[in-house]
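Sequence only, no structure available. Ideas?
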Amino acid sequence: MNRIVQILLIVFLFSCQSNTSLQDVVKVSDRSILLNNEPYIIKGVCYHPVPKGFEKRNFTTLSQDLKLMIEAGVNTIRVYAPIDDVTVLDQIHKAGLKLIIGFGYNQGGHFDILSGSYLDYVKKFKTHPSILMWELGNEYNYHPEWFDGDLNNWYQAMNNAAQDIHLVDPNHPVTTAHGELPDSLALTASSNIDVWGMNIYRWDNPDNLYEQWKTISNKPMYLSEAGGDSYMTIAKEGYQQGLNQKAQADANHNILESIFNNLDICSGVTMFSFTDGWWKAGNIDQQDPGGWAPNSSGVPYDGSPNEEYWGMVDIDRNKKETFKVIKSFYTK
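Reply:
I predicted one. Tokens follow.
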């Protein structure tokens, strides 16, 4: 081997070692999420982009969406299913954002917990710099019928999946999106969950959540869903019936103020949601009021989840009033 080849080989090996050493490490310490040993506050959005006239997610608007997210100060995107396209992951990373990747229980063997194929995804992408955390399930505690009527079956499956992820990826925590505050069964049976995400709809004031969490767990928590929609099913509390961006903006202001006043307990939020979804409640070619979601009576200010009106932008990516509100908290 001549001298030039030796030098090139040394440079290559050093480059590999340097890239490895630069891999992000996400871990938990007491009630905090740490990114490379620095506290990380989630300033996030739930993201499931479905175009008009379609029912399935696609990322054709990703570049436009990322620009809007960056403008709003978003640092984290929560997705409900894995993104198996490295070009999408790369684009999110280049924009400076992190991902919470969600796995379902039974998705026909496609990166799901039941088949064990979720681990294939973890192994494939565990070194990708866009990853913040792995998430197991979304509000499954509202659906015991999916688990032979016994939620303990779900909690045991979730706990085992979290343990298996820890074995193959020590650099990213495992979370879940639990519907409301977990009870003693959930906490006891799911000890391998590192960070508890909670989908919280308590009108416009989740203030009592933090003390409740403090008394039952010493682990980090964040709000995996929170917010209000921009349609009032009925007139209430001074807000007129029908389209009402002010109701959404006011509710989200109060919710975010509560979260950011309690960062000693709460590690942030992924607001629901980035964009309106016309696929959720009626004709996929138009925006329909109505819809249904479990335990949704706490939706401000009408107690009614109008499923297609939850975005901080509409389906054409026009900013709603709440965009400015979210930006004001995320860019402080």
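The domain at 42-330 is CATH 3.20.20.80 (TIM Barrel).
Hope that gets you unstuck.
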